[in-house]
Design a protein that fits this description.
Blueprint (H helix, E strand, L loop, with lengths): L2 H4 L3 E5 L11 H4 L5 H14 L3 E7 L9 E5 L12 E13 L2 E11 L3 H11 L6 E6 L2 E8 L6
Parallel strand pairs: 3-7
Antiparallel strand pairs: 1-5, 2-4, 3-4, 4-5, 6-7
């Protein structure tokens, strides 16, 4: 393992869902090469069975090859600053029932950036970080951490 790798850690986060449907991820997932194949299988399986469907999307198949998680420091004023890359998304695991997303797990790798080092330290210190969905017009656009507010 290189020194670069020892400064990074991997961690998976479950996303808190609020009656999310697969359609809300359509624009996000359409950038993955295998999305059309998955979508066809999901539709077929949902017609044939009323069972849970699980699929994993590997980010290396994304058209840009990388997706980043940012840190949001000030919820009221910081949405223009969603450029604070802290982690790269390694994979997304969806569990569906009908067209409803009942579980979403995202595996991340911290980056060797200023915010990546901060997130790595928070994870190693067992600070409870919540990975959240950034939505615009009912569509998931990206994922982010809210920087935890420290109380005295």
């Amino acid at each position: 393992m290189s020194n670069l790798d020892t400064n990074r850690i991997k961690k998976s986060f479950n996303i808190s869902l609020e009656n999310n449907t697969l359609e809300q991820y359509e624009m996000f997932l359409s950038n993955f090469k295998e999305w059309k194949h998955y979508k066809r299988e999901i539709k077929l399986n949902s017609l044939l069975d009323n069972k849970k469907i699980e699929f994993r999307v590997d980010v290396s198949s994304h058209t840009t090859g990388a997706l980043y998680v940012n840190v949001l420091v000030d919820v009221d004023n910081d949405f223009d600053l969603l450029k604070k890359a802290s982690c790269s998304i390694e994979s997304l695991k969806f569990v569906l029932k009908d067209s409803n997303v009942i579980e979403l797990e995202i595996s991340l790798i911290t980056l060797n950036t200023e915010w990546g080092k901060i997130v790595k330290e928070l994870i190693e210190s067992d600070v409870n970080l919540e990975l959240k969905q950034f939505m615009v017009d009912g569509q998931v656009k990206s994922f982010y951490f809210e920087y935890p507010k420290m109380s005295a």
